[in-house]
Amino acid sequence: MAHYTSEAEQIAARVEEFVRTVVAPYEADPRCGSHGPSDELGAELRGKAKAVGLLVPHIRKDGSHFSHADTALILRKSGISPLGPIACHVMAPDEGNMYLLRKVGSDEIKQRFLAPLASGDARSAFFMTEPAEDNGAGSDPSLMQTTCQRDGNHWVINGRKAFITGADGAKVGIIMAKSVEADSEGGACMFLVDLPDPSIQIERVLETIDSSMPGGHAVITINDLRVPANQMLGEAGEGFKYAQVRLAPARLTHCMRWLGVADRAQEIATDYACKRTAFGKPLVDHEGVGFMLAQNKIDLKACELMIDWCASVLDTGEIGTTESSMAKTFVAETLFQIADRCVQVMGGTGVTGDTIVEQFFREIRAFRIYDGPTEVHKWSLAKKIKRDWRKAQP
Q1: In 72-180, which ranges are E strands?
Q2: Where is the Acyl-CoA dehydrogenase/oxidase C-terminal domain (predicted)?
Q3: CATH number of 124-236
């Protein structure tokens, strides 16, 4: 079990109080739409968090990060409401993008692109996934169709992207493209761009099952986008390496946030089961209902331990790709079972928007696919099992 610092515990307690008392009442706000909370609402919530010193609470005032283990506790408390991570500015994709820029960005990139993100004055988008109809990059990044080519002191980017979270309304973009250069600059590259840009057009914002992320998920066309060479993130040809720097921790912070919502869903379902009576006694006293809540309690602890274990690996300095795949797979699948039981315990009420339980069910169903479907992570783990077996042979 993780041992959290007292500093992190104090901040986590403040985050929880803030999310429960200030943020959660906004869940019924009409500015929460099918494509996520409006930018107006997001700015209002971030303003409230900033006023009490809880904007990006996992980052100290001197710019240093809490450990991944401490971050797990803080982000879990932010997730008690789906709006909590937006208020505290630790929502995807911004949290992962800020982490990447701190790790890889030059001083110039940090000043120009990271600063407005860290201050909460801007949202961002990560342009990697591509449309299935183009047979583009998804779980298999080697299929990337978006290209970049040098032209003097610029790179010219062309292609299409899909499921780009938050692109509508974002001010900062990180774009992945495959270089067509034959020399050392060939391979995957990452670029920082200001948004909006006339060369980056939103074809449409998809109608998806989830609704927690501002801007929704868009299909994008990039047509002759010219990017100065000094806006490349890191080195040419190393884009996939930088993607792993971002994706492994980002998978885990997703798990942290959704575990917080699961805590809240369990609270709501428990309250319902203890107050609602049927056949002469409270629902919780019926074994079929009580056992579901008991299993949820067991599974919540198992998810906590899995997250803490993966965080401890990341805190050693390892990229932790295998561990984050294991954590993401286990937590997403387990939280889905928890959400399903909460809905079932609450019966008809559980499938209405009267509580956050229904939204949590939708959000966690999508998370079983986002950041890599469960089946892809298991396939990757199976390949590692085979490699390890071969190495162990005499």
Answers
A1: 124-127, 147-151, 154-165, 172-179
A2: 237-384
A3: 2.40.110.10
pLDDT, one tens digit for every residue, the chain (394 residues): 567 999 999 999 999 999 999 999 999 999 999 999 999 999 999 999 999 999 999 999 888 889 999 999 999 999 999 999 999 999 999 999 999 999 999 999 999 999 999 999 999 999 999 999 999 999 888 899 999 999 999 999 999 999 999 999 999 999 999 999 877 667 899 999 999 999 999 999 999 999 999 999 999 999 999 999 999 998 899 998 998 888 888 999 999 999 999 999 999 999 999 999 999 999 999 999 999 999 999 999 999 999 999 999 999 988 788 999 999 999 999 999 999 999 999 999 999 999 999 999 999 999 999 999 999 999 999 999 999 999 999 9
Tokens of 346: 């609450």
List CB contacts of 219: < 8 A, sequence separation 6 or more. Answer: 131, 160, 161, 162, 163, 164, 202, 203, 204, 205, 206
Whole-model pTM?
A: 0.94
The residue length of the chain stands at 394
Query: Residues of CATH 1.20.140.10 domain(s) within the chain?
Result: 240-392
